[in-house]
Amino acid sequence: MYKPKMKLTKEEQAILDGEQGPVMQQIMETVVRFGDMFEAPRLVNVTHHEGHLVTSFGIGIIKPLFTTMDKLVEADIHTKAKFTVDPRPLDYENVKCNLIEKLVFNKILYSEQARYEKQLTAVGLKNKNAFTCACYFPEVGNTPKKGDILSWAESSAVNYANSVLGARVNRNSGMIDLFGSILGKVPEFGLLTNEGRKAKWKVTLKLSKLPEAQILGSAIGMKVMEDVPYVIGLDKFLGKELNDDVKGYLKDFGAATASNGAVGLYHIDGITPEAKELGHKLIRKDAKEYVIDDAELERVYKSYPIMWKKANKKGNLAFIGCPHLSFAQLNDWTDKITNALKEAGRSKVAVRTIMTTAPDVKEKFMKTDKYQQLMATGVKLSCICPLMYTNNPVTKIRRIMTTSNKLRTYSIARYYKSDDMLKILAGKGE
Amino acid sequence: MKTFKGRVLAKGNWEGEAIVSHQGVNTLATFQKSALKNAKTVIASDQNNPDIFKKELTGKALCLPITIGSTTGGLVIQAICALKIHPACLLFSEHIDSLAASGVVLANVWEHSDMIAIDNLGKEFLETVKTGDKLKVSEDGTVTIL
After folding, report:
1. N vs C: which end of chain A shows fewer Cβ within 10 Å?
2. Which residue in chain B is spatially nearest to A55 when comparing CA positions?
3. How far is CA B112 from CA A283, A296, B84, B106, in A?
């Protein structure tokens, strides 16, 4: 029997001793041992009970997940509250696949999808619309408050919840997120502590204009890796108000810091909640410094390798929305694409284009005139995870373009700045 | 012969060959191809990690600073342990990261894996150990380059 190093309450110790059955015992042991590796002094209560799971896909590589889920279902174990989960990997209606791709997806890669979704439902999945990486959108409603303790793992959602919402969550792995949501408890260490939320990097921006969120995030992520950065100079361009446009910008910026590095929390001077409250007190005395100017951003942008087999050919599929687009971003992209096409004298986009968003956001958007406007351009709107779609050998024959630095990092998709992507969609670029 | 002492996360005694990554190991990118194929051994498939790309990891001591990449990382480690194609040891020069820590615990508690894990071996360990070196790992966290 495992002897915990952290101090447990009587109730927690009883679960570890097996009083609630062997599966709950294993769950408690996993969480306690995980916390012990980080010298966590105790478990603390999850205060935002609605969980979010990073594993939405029934991919064959993680077979033990399905076995564990079977054990949970058999033992009638549920999460404390309903949870959301990352996007589905497939959407044949809006993201067409050829027969070979379908065969690979259905029989090899995502062969366990139907079984896994049944398991998720049995353990506490919120509803059919629960599949998005941006569960914190108001339309989805899994939105923690400042100071809330969470048990999440999706890297971009952890990053957003910590940084923009001021909630507290570590950069967990899949399964640890679920176990914390079942126990309603997580180990107290790292980003759950005041000390762990202090910045080890002071990042100063000396830029001539608002940078592409995705490139700025990439530059910072690659520099600071898993550390917390405090960014000075962005409020000059974004203002001080956390409105929908700024939240969209920070979502994309944060996802790039999390995927190009391993950032779980960032502070933006004058904008994000803790930076507004504590200011430069959040910067550790021994913080390292990183100055970013226009040339540095261009250097980072030019460093991205082109992984296509035929690098000199034009792209033939565009993905916009990784992480999922917010309602405001959907409207913005719709207007920009419409205007770009009008200027180019075209009615349809020149390249097959898929925009992705949360199911609840899509439903809201479909009720507006903008939806018909977007459909008229030939763009498809899906709730797929572009990453899961591109993460297979068959899809690699396509030359996928994206405005997402996360998608670029985890696939062979080529990154384009937003303005360059608009030109390509209008048939003007490249 | 040089000896290093780290913190034991999953204990065991072992002797065998080292394989060294000087950069963070992207768990998903490294293991996914072999796991998907139900292969009998792991051949590292992360083309962005030249230290270990196309090299066999199964049954060896993977020496690394930390793991990086997708937060499915812990599950991937659990999966390769379930398939019994895992490295014999994970030897971290730094404090273990949260993704690898999840993987070590999941593998131990749910798969009863025999994979050894030691962290905090220090920068000098990673600067000294070379791929192909013979290592002796002891259950008190001592790693000796023979």
Report:
1. N
2. B72
3. 42, 48, 11, 9
